[in-house]
Specification:
Keywords: Membrane, Plasmid, Transmembrane, Transmembrane helix. By secondary structure, this protein is an alpha+beta fold. The chain contains five helices and five strands; from the N terminus they run ββαααααβββ. The longest helix has 40 residues.
C-alpha cells in the first residue's frame, strides 16, 4: 500500500510570493525553477560571488589582525598584573635562552595564536556574524521574482506553497502567519 502525499496532484505547483509578509503575486514551480537556473548560469553572478568570497576572506583577515594582537597584549598585561612572579620567570628564561629555544617557543606561540584565531572565526560564525557574506544567487532570484510580480521595492522575499482544498481540488490562499 502506497502512502498518499499531501501535495501530490496532477496540477502544477503554484507558489505565493510574499514580500515583507504581504502577498505580491504568484509563480509556478516551473517559472521559479527557470529563474533559479538563469541565476546559477549567469557568469556575472558567479564572478561577483567569487569576488564576494574573496572579500569575506579579507574581512576575516582584517578582523584577526586587530583582534589577535589585542587579545595577546591584554593577556600579557593580565599575567603581569595577576601573576607577576610567573611573568618575571618567563622574561628571565627568555633572556637566558639560545636561538633554538627562542625559535621553538615562537613556533609554539604561533601555533597557539593560530588556534586562537581559528576559534575566534568559528565563534563568530556560530554567533551569527557573517563577515559581510552576501548570497548573490539568492539576491538574483529575488530580483527576478520582484520583476515577475512587478514589485519595484526591495524587501524580504519568501515563497509559500499554495494549499489545495481536498474536497474541491481548488487552490486556496493560506491565512497569513
Amino acid at each position: 500500500m502506497k502512502k498518499a502525499n499531501l501535495w501530490s496532484n496532477d496540477q502544477p505547483t503554484i507558489w505565493n510570493v510574499y514580500m515583507n509578509g504581504v502577498v505580491i503575486g504568484k509563480v509556478s514551480d516551473a517559472q521559479y525553477a527557470a529563474m533559479q537556473r538563469m541565476a546559477f548560469r549567469d557568469g556575472r553572478t558567479a564572478l561577483a560571488q567569487f569576488f564576494n568570497l574573496g572579500r569575506v576572506a579579507f574581512v576575516v583577515v582584517e578582523k584577526l589582525l586587530v583582534t589577535v594582537p589585542f587579545l595577546v597584549f591584554w593577556s600579557a598585561v593580565a599575567i603581569a598584573i595577576f601573576s607577576p612572579e610567573s611573568y618575571t620567570d618567563l622574561v628571565r628564561e627568555l633572556q637566558k635562552a639560545d636561538q633554538a629555544e627562542i625559535m621553538s617557543a615562537m613556533y609554539l606561540f604561533l601555533q597557539a595564536v593560530l588556534v586562537l584565531a581559528l576559534g575566534l572565526v568559528c565563534t563568530g560564525f556560530v554567533m551569527g556574524y557573517h563577515y559581510e557574506f552576501r548570497n548573490l544567487y539568492s539576491e538574483a532570484v529575488n530580483r527576478m521574482l520582484r520583476q515577475h510580480c512587478k514589485t519595484p521595492a526591495n524587501g524580504d522575499v519568501q515563497l509559500r506553497r499554495m494549499a489545495t482544498d481536498p474536497i474541491s481540488n481548488q487552490k486556496v490562499v493560506p491565512a497569513p502567519d
